[in-house]
Amino acid sequence: MKAIAAGYQVTDPQPNDQGQMYQRPGRPSDPIPGPFPNDQAARAANNGALPPDLSMIVKARPGGPNYVYAILTGYKDPPPGFNMLSGMNYDEYFPGHQIAMPPPLSDNAVTFADGVSASVPQMAHDVVTFLAWASEPNLDDRHRTGLKVILFLIVAAGVFYAMKRKIWAPVH
């Protein structure tokens, strides 16, 4: 991730000594820049709808990654007799089954370097994995710190128990 992020130039949020904003290589902790310069441009490009910020969608929805994966892979033809509104797409997992977003993924839309088939389920899995990371990029560090804390507490409990036995041994 560090190598990918460093390939982009970002404006540092802190000015330099002269008070000027400057460009620097990106870091994994930098926010991902949006595709539009402002909300008005985003609405103009999306038929008046403001695209959602998906950086926290995995944590915000019940079912998290499963919900996002289901939405991405749930585009189908509507069943016979289903009343579809104009401009809507049928998604069997979306509440109400009508979603304005067209199917974002299609087979063989990308080429994987390792030769993996670029199927919709595979790409949806990759998108969900990335969104899970984007919602909490420091999760691995937190898990390592938590493991160290648990190990410390186990050792400390052992030392305290041994000290208690030594201190109270003469009383029995």
The helical percent reads: 40-55%
Distance between the termini: 60 Å
Shape: extended
Estimate what percentage of residues fall within beta strands.
5-15%
Number of strands: 4
SSE series: HEEHHHEEHH
Largest sheet: 2 strands, antiparallel
Report the radius of gyration as a whole number of Å.
25 Å
| Overall SS class | mainly alpha
pLDDT < 50 stretches = none
Count the helices. How many?
Answer: 6
Determine the mean pLDDT.
Answer: 90
Main β-sheet, spatial strand arrangement: 1-2
Describe the structure.
By secondary structure, the chain is mainly α. The protein contains six helices and four strands; from the N terminus they run αββαααββαα. The strands form two sheets. A two-stranded antiparallel sheet has the order 1-2. A two-stranded antiparallel sheet has the order 3-4. A hairpin with a 7-residue loop joins strand 3 (89-90) and strand 4 (98-99). Helix 4 (65-73) packs antiparallel against helix 5 (120-135). The N and C termini lie far apart (60 Å). The mean pLDDT is 90.
Outline:
The chain is mainly alpha-helical and 172 residues long.
Helices and strands, with pairings:
Blueprint: H1 2-6, E1 9-11, E2 23-25, H2 39-45, H3 57-60, H4 65-73, E3 89-90, E4 98-99, H5 120-135, H6 139-168
Antiparallel strand pairs: 1-2, 3-4
Helix pairs in contact: 4-5
Key structural traits:
172 residues; mainly alpha; two-stranded antiparallel ribbon; 6 helices; 41% helix
